[in-house]
Here is the input.
Amino acid sequence: MIRVFCILLALVSPAAASQHSWPALHDVIGVDEGDVLNLRAAPDITAEVLDTLSADASDIEVIRPNEDLTWGLVNVGERTGWVSLTYLAQQARQPASAFVDITQCFGTEPFWSLSYKQPAIRLSMPDVPPAEGFISGLFKSRSQSDRYFYRGSMMTPDAGPIEVDLSIRLRACSDGRSDRAYGIEVDMLVTDNNTEDGFRQPGLFSGCCTIAPPAE
Here is the structure.
């Protein structure tokens, strides 16, 4: 009986979670009203405090945990640091067969951003009117559980239809312009089939994605 109990405990413990269960959204718990949860420079209770989270903070994207699953890497404003997972409750996750819930992707050289609220997408780039459309295809790798492919069809005000393909991988990512950390890497292929008046910036763009809800 004890052996069975130990096996069940191992199955539900954080250490038994899939290596691809991150990033994930969390809510602050167990912090008294009026108190705060510290964001620290390292996964250690004695490390420097960089910023704080309020007692009722929610939709916090934990990029990844430390090795013993006691601290989570979190972005607060323009800072990235560690928060004790004792005070964070993971929101209900979709089944492993579901697609990663990205909300925004972005990159530099040139600066670009793509917002996604199922099924609508919006692509913004410098010197180009925003393009809007929909995700028309979702694919998940049959051999690699951390890889996804999204296909989008969009319209631009002056260049007509374009296609946007997103190759997404769950891995550490940097936006190249800040100290913020991300847990989703993306390569975006923009294809313009209009030869008369092109989108002006077709090509392959790389960047990062987040699952955090956009700031209001």
Observations:
- The domain at 20-90 is CATH 2.30.30.40 (SH3 type barrels.).
- The two ends are 51 Å apart (CA to CA).
